[in-house]
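Example (one chain per record):
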Amino acid sequence: MAKKENPIRRTTGKGGNYRKTKAGAGMTKKGVAAHRRANPGSKLKTAVTGKVKKGSKAAKRRKSYCARSAGQMKKFPKAAKDPNSRLRQARKRWKC
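Predicted structure:
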């Protein structure tokens, strides 16, 4: 029996479910919808980019993401130093 290969994850072109780095990295609405179709029960959501009320669910999601991505900044110092890295651009989009 042949080993099933993982499909290539593309950021552009057909099935482009991820934003370009310059556009703030992360997944698009279309990408999130595709993921949720492929994974029933998934609770994946797009980035919290707008203005939010203090203590709201969205504000808590943002705070949680910012805390997790701060850990990524420690783990990948090269990406943390590069202002054009996907990590830095995503954090900027989330307003971290």
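Caption: The radius of gyration is 15 Å.
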